[in-house]
């Protein structure tokens, strides 16, 4: 996969490693078609670098953040910080890292899966849906340009 030139994808934050897995030994992964490496330097600071495709040498340093037990980075210049989950900071909450699941998919497919509730009775039987309750009542979907988000509202679905 070639490195993307999509500015929307480049200018977003991505969780690339579990913090407990990042040591002084470099961990190599791919982000949007770009090879990157993450490690803790001699001072224990988290660093992430692009890897030059031609030489295999360390390339440009990338911005990094620690949040939700993960190392986050970006290949671009995000206009905003990583989203917040208020519950993650509550003292009475337990935080559990459950590992990674990598999927070969596309952004539009992820959005379609989120917006399409018809899969609930078949994929999430007994939790989010159940056969024979497979009808999806009409709901509203819109792109809210002011916040650059897709919103589905008035969603209703049978849940056991």
**Reading side by side through the largest sheet, how are the strands ordered?**
2-3-4-5
Number of helices: 3
Number of strands: 9
> Can you tell me the CATH superfamily of the largest domain?
Rieske [2Fe-2S] iron-sulphur domain
> What is the CATH third-level topology name of the largest domain?
Rieske Iron-sulfur Protein
Percent of residues in helices comes to 10-25%
The 3D shape can be described as globular
What is the CATH first-level class name of the largest domain?
Mainly Beta
The class by helix and strand makeup works out as mainly beta
Q: Which value, in Å, is the CA radius of gyration?
A: 19 Å
Intertermini distance: 42 Å
Q: What is the average of the pLDDT values?
A: 87
Q: What kind of sheet is the major sheet?
A: 4 strands, antiparallel
CATH-scheme architecture of the largest domain:
3-layer Sandwich
Low confidence ranges: none
Commentary on this structure:
There is one protein chain. With 160 residues, this protein is mainly beta. The chain folds into 2 domains: 7-89, Rieske [2Fe-2S] iron-sulphur domain (Rieske Iron-sulfur Protein); 107-153, no CATH class. The protein has 3 helices and 9 strands, in the order H-E-E-E-E-E-E-E-H-H-E-E. The strands form 3 sheets. It has a 4-stranded antiparallel beta sheet with strand order 2-3-4-5, with no helix packed on it. The protein has a 3-stranded antiparallel beta sheet with strand order 1-7-6, with no helix packed on it. Strands 8-9 form a two-stranded antiparallel ribbon. The longest helix is centred in the last third of the chain and has 9 residues, at 107-115. The radius of gyration is 19 Å and the shape is globular. The N and C termini lie far apart (42 Å). The mean pLDDT is 87.
């Amino acid at each position: 996969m070639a490195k993307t030139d999509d500015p929307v994808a480049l200018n977003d934050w991505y969780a690339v490693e579990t913090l407990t897995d990042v040591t002084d030994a470099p961990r190599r992964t791919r982000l949007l078609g770009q090879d990157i490496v993450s490690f803790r330097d001699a001072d224990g600071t988290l660093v992430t670098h692009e890897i030059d495709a031609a030489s295999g040498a360390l390339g440009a340093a990338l911005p990094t953040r620690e949040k939700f037990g993960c190392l986050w980075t970006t290949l671009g210049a995000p206009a905003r910080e990583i989203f917040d989950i208020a519950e993650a900071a509550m003292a009475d909450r337990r935080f559990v890292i459950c590992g990674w699941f990598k999927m070969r998919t596309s952004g539009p497919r992820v959005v379609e899966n989120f917006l399409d509730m018809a899969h609930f009775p078949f994929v999430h039987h007994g939790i989010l849906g159940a056969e024979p309750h497979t009808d999806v009542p009409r709901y509203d979907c819109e792109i809210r340009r002011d916040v650059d988000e897709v919103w589905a509202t008035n969603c209703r679905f049978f849940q056991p």
